[in-house]
Write a structure and sequence with these properties.
The chain is built from 9 helices and 10 strands. The protein is of the alpha+beta class. The chain is elongated.
Length: about 220
């Protein structure tokens, strides 16, 4: 688990009696979009920086509890939950609560590289390939089988773009013969989006094209 490395315990929740001006100063110094607010020692929610600019800076947060957004993550979080919650709440900070609802600290979006750099897809050497296929035909199992049947080891895969027509997939794998796997994807009607020196078919087509251009210029 990454919890101990990512949770910033020095970012403590503020009591609702804190003034708007004081909170704005703190949030701007930390460059955070939201900040955790507590009431009588109990976490109540996150307040959005932009909302604070619309109220009197001499007020206290207690006078504007209606602005609080009740989002948080539990202490047993995983990397995917973090990315999902950052995106869903349009925030660059997430509060972490224990199973007893005790406030444990916050996680900042800018610290997420600590998780990313530990994912095999990013830290291991291998071929990074981007392929595209009609969305109705997309099958993660088929992608994995093509790599493994080519004696490759799949290190990671994720969807980089999807719509009703096409799905774009980024994957990383290790293999002795990368070209064989690339050509197998072609035989299964996948478009090879990324460029690779190991892609012999692409190089051959390029050579033919250059020869044809020279012929036309004679």
């Amino acid at each position: 688990m990454f919890s101990n490395k990512l949770i910033r315990k020095e970012i403590s929740s503020l009591e609702a009696k804190t003034s708007v001006k004081q909170l704005i100063d703190i949030m701007q110094s930390l460059e955070v979009s939201h900040y955790p607010i507590q009431y009588h020692g109990i976490f109540w929610g996150m307040i959005y920086l932009e909302d604070l600019f619309s109220i009197n800076e001499n007020d206290t947060i207690l006078e504007h509890l209606y602005l609080l957004q009740p989002f948080f993550i539990r202490e047993d979080f995983n990397g995917m939950q973090l990315y999902e919650n950052f995106y869903k709440n349009d925030a660059n900070i997430l509060p972490v609560l224990s199973f007893n609802n005790k406030f444990l600290g916050c996680i900042l979006l800018k610290d997420m590289s600590k998780i990313t750099m530990q994912i095999p897809m990013f830290k291991e050497e291998g071929c990074s390939l981007i392929i595209s296929t009609p969305t109705p035909n997309y099958s993660l199992g088929e992608v994995a089988r093509i790599v493994e049947n080519g004696n490759g080891k799949l290190l990671g895969v994720f969807i980089t773009e999807i719509n009703a027509m096409r799905t774009e997939i980024s994957l990383k794998f290790n293999a002795l013969n990368i070209n064989d796997i690339i050509q197998t994807f072609r035989r299964f009607d996948y478009e090879i989006v990324s460029k690779h020196s190991e892609d012999l078919l692409a190089e051959e087509l390029k050579d033919h094209s250059e020869y044809f251009d020279k012929y036309l210029n004679i």
